[in-house]
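Example record used in the benchmark description.
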Amino acid sequence: MLRLGVNIDHVATIRNARGTPWPDPVRAALLAQQAGADGITAHLREDRRHISDRDIERLAQEIRLPLNLEMAATPEMQRIALRHRPHAICLVPERREERTTEGGLDVAANRAFLADFIAPLREAGARVSLFIGHEPAQIEAAAEIGAAVVELHTGAYCDLDTEGRLAERDAELAALARGAALADELGLEVHAGHGLTFDTVGPIAALPQLRELNIGHFLIAESVFTGLAAAIGEMRARMKAARP
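Model output (structure tokens):
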């Protein structure tokens, strides 16, 4: 079964826009849990632009689902992860000037650093995932340094679809399919995410090697109109329909 992880970052984005306690991202996580999500994802950024330290503390205490903590590979984040010991830790690249995560980690160029960084996280029992592009060199490096999971960046595929650049979109999808197959051959569990919508999720969900999709911004946006449970239900239905 293809799992759905629900990213609640942008509930916190709305909250922080007014500096009030509302809407509460932990309440959104509990609603996602009731609606059938398989996990909760939250990205604790260096600048705390959405999820806060207190949010992570509460999520670790209050939800029953596995918590996937997205974070940059910094000493501060490593300390936080070791303190809370989430089920999974997904390392992502992070730049303060970006609006959202713009690409994957360059694992190939940072093998030694990342191998040393993830070692204590693995020893603490976390499943370490690396958010990467579909390039073979990045996938091979992720396997070499001992990651358990790779999450393939689907943002370019989704952007090309939105822009109507269909030939380029199809080429990007083919590259993602090759990347998923290679990662699976190397013994990595394969996840995917970033930018997925009702319209773009089907071809990604159909990739047979995938075990989990992590989707956030679109689900939170859609929930403004339909409610979070309905948005999650529709996404799950489309994921299920994509697989035989």
